[in-house]
Amino acid sequence: MTAAPPEPAALHSEAAGSAASAPDPVGTAVSTSGLAKRFRGGQLAVAGIDLVVPHGSVYGFLGPNGSGKTTTIRMLLGLVAPTAGSHTLLGRPMPASAAEVLPRVGALVEGPAFHPYLSGRANLARLDAADRTADPSTAPHRIDAALDRVGLTAAAKKRYRAYSLGMRQRLGIAAALLQPRELLVLDEPTNGLDPQGTREVRTLVQELASDGVTVLVSSHLLSEVEQVCTHVGVMHVGKLVAQGTLGELRRSQQPRVSVETSDPAAAARALADLGLATRPVEGRHVSAALGDAEPEKVLAALVHAGVPVRQFTVDAPGLEDVFVALTGEGFDVSG
User: Fold this and answer.
1) Which of 44, 74, 111, 171 has the most CB within a 10 Å radius?
2) How far apart are CA 233 and CA 217, in angstroms?
């Protein structure tokens, strides 16, 4: 349906000052240039971001609640008018090409809304009948296909009020898939779900991506983004502070050493003597950015200082490390 993802773009970071030029929409499913939104009360919700979502990618739009993710998504879909900037969807300028582009885009924004006393299939039938671009003659087949795609065929006749949270989210995704889509935009699709529901939605996103659908999924959960996404954009107080492939974001930060010891204060002092910046001690664990130091020499220095080392590991940086380095703040890893 869509082309394979292009070669990864270079890591973007506001700190590096690499957002000076407008992104090229060629080869991208979503592209924004200086997209901004200021509300009437003066609040700047989105501060001129340059978003680049490659075709065929699963792009994790990551940030804590209130960072501007949903406002950005609403601007992309034409639900909210931007204060400044421009954007394209599927290579076409918006909102000028909305009539052409939006039928090729499926979206689940701020949770699904269905009639509680209707069945899953009946809810989808009502939505499909309201779509002026849908062919009524193919509706039964398309509805059955959408239900099958999200694993709800067996529950198709069950009333929506009896659905679990995971089933409701999957029905919302089914609604977005009633017609063939090239781009799927999901706003916090695992919000409020139990582990089983989260796994169901994660598996569905991976299956859609394997079929060539570009997926833009917003989330405040780092662990979910790390498991399912190929590319990531990090939002913080309305700003896009970094974006790139997962590998690029991780490589932007240094590895860390982690020490488990019965004397964490002594370990912290020994690491500080080596010039390594440590994080606050958590129980029996002390960690520090490795920098240019060699792990063998760090371990030797700990032993020489008399630190009782129970475990010593070198950890590759994760998204949490990237976020802390970019913003100086902690982040909700698992929700």
Assistant:
1) 171
2) 10
